Amino acid sequence: MTSVTALGNGAHEEAEAQQKATPSGSQTLLRGLDVLEAVAEGPISLAKLAQRLDLTRSTTHRLAAALVERDFLVLTPREGYQLGPKLLELGYLAQRQMDIPRVARPHIEDLAAATEDTVHLGILDGDHALYLDKIPGRRRIEIGSRVGERHPIASTGLGKALILDETEARWRHFFADRDWAMDDWPVWLKRMQAYAAGGYAFDLEENEDRIRCVAAPIRGANGKIIAAISLSSAAQYMSDARMQELVETVKETARQISRGMGWSEGGPRRR
Q1: Which of 194, 202, 230, 259 has fewest C-beta within 10 Å?
Q2: Do 236 and 187 sit in the same domain of this protein?
Q3: How far apart are alpha carbons 107 and 101 in whole angstroms?
Q4: Confidence of residue 120 (pLDDT cuts 50, 70, 90)
Q5: Model pLDDT for residues 180-227, shown as the tens digit of each residue
Q6: Does residue 270 fall inside a structural domain?
Q7: What total of structural domains would you count in the chain?
Q8: What is the DSSP letter of 80?
């Protein structure tokens, strides 16, 4: 009886070992993705790749060879495995499919619903902010903006959010475009420096009388600002205190959209 039990246990352990040695389809896929992520950090030899993934050399070689065969990896003599041309092709296709309004729409809808205020989405178009989308708020106020319109950069919160990474010389260019008195330049510059440091921007009734907004930039995979969102409402609903409270809410929505566009929290930020 003991010998039968021992044999049974031995067979069970052997079956478990066999299962570990031969991973399921989903495990193989995940391990293949682990290989790609490891190689993304730079060229790596088979031995170091196996060590990093905590896999045997034979398993690692089998996974890497399959990826080389499909052009996801290339094997370079004396350097090891590197990312292959298939990933460049897929990256290009993914970038084309990442349409900003489509990615942003559910996020700006949620922001408008949560705050009851109007949300705009826009991009830099020459020396103006081009509005790509608008979600009206629930308050009984009229904000004079339409999708497809171009608005000034220096006087809109969305416009200022679009140029947070620009140089002071570029800021001066956008400021001059408004034909404001140069005496106002130091005040505007100081505000822009604070906005750039905080990653947001305000419109303090500069573009439209009695309308205020909080804005934040959207970044792409390379860290550059590719668009911006703004949350707008009548001044009576946008006290200084509420605008400060909304900064993190608007920035978080912008971050969510940025992630959808390929940006990562620890990725590059261009200035």
Answers
A1: 194
A2: yes
A3: 10
A4: very high
A5: 888 899 999 999 999 999 999 999 999 888 999 999 999 998 999 999
A6: no
A7: 2
A8: E
Nearest CA-CA partner of 117 in 229, 233, 204, 202 = 233
CB contact at 8 A, 154 and 177: yes
Question: What is the rounded distance in angstroms from the CA atom of residue 228 to the CA atom of residue 218?
Answer: 5
Sheet holding 211-219, edge to edge: 150-152, 128-135, 118-125, 225-234, 211-219, 201-204
Rounded distance between C-alpha atoms, residue 155 and residue 158, angstroms: 9
Query: Quick check: 147 and 131 in contact, CB under 8 A?
Result: yes
Determine, yes or no, domain membership for 145.
Answer: yes
Residues 89, 114: one domain?
Answer: no
| In a domain? residue 266 | no
pLDDT of residue 181: 82
**Would you say residue 271 lies in a domain?**
no
Q: Is 262 exposed, middle or buried (0-12, 13-18, 19+ CB in 10 A)?
A: middle
Question: Which of 62, 93, 124 is at the close of a domain?
Answer: 93
Residues 117 and 145 sit within 8 Å (Cβ to Cβ): no
Token couple for 265: 């929290």
Integer Cα distance of 150 and 255 in angstroms: 24
Range(s) of the domain holding residue 167: 98-260
Taking only the tens place, the pLDDT of each residue in 59-72 is 999 999 999 999 99
Please count the other Cβ atoms lying within 10 Å of the Cβ belonging to residue 191.
Answer: 15
CA 242 to chain CA centroid, Å, is 26
CA distance 203 to 154: 9
Count Cβ atoms within 10 A of the Cβ of residue 180 and give its class: 0-12 exposed, 13-18 middle, 19 or more buried: middle
Whether this model's pTM surpasses 0.85: no
Regarding whether 116 and 68 lie in a shared domain, the answer is no
Closest to 255 (Cα-Cα) out of 222, 216, 202: 216
